[in-house]
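Researcher: Go.
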Amino acid sequence: MNAAARQSGLVLVYVSVLGLLMMLIWTLAWNATHETIHVEAVHELRAARDEGVTRVAAYGLGLLETGIPEQDPYECLVTITNGSGTFVGTLQFSSVVWPDTWTVSAWKATESELLMLPEAPASF
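Model: Structure:
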């Protein structure tokens, strides 16, 4: 085998290894970009949900400033409308030390709660 044939064989090996490394780098970059986009979408959904739940809880605290619920525990629905849409949440008021201390819990309303629970009053 002459030197030119040996040299062209090495060039082919070098080009193949370089191509393999470039494909590996491209795959890693593509996976990282895909995961970043997915994580960002999840964070946006979580922020929108948390914003709705936070606003429902704030509405419940405002209701407690007007008085106390007529029963313990008391549950009702609150509808919040913002720029991203409408959020329907459930508020639950439970007394810890009657009648001075209350806990307010808020979460996204389930289908059964939408059918059974009343809307939140304007005041207690």
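Model: The first strand starts at residue 74 and ends at 82.
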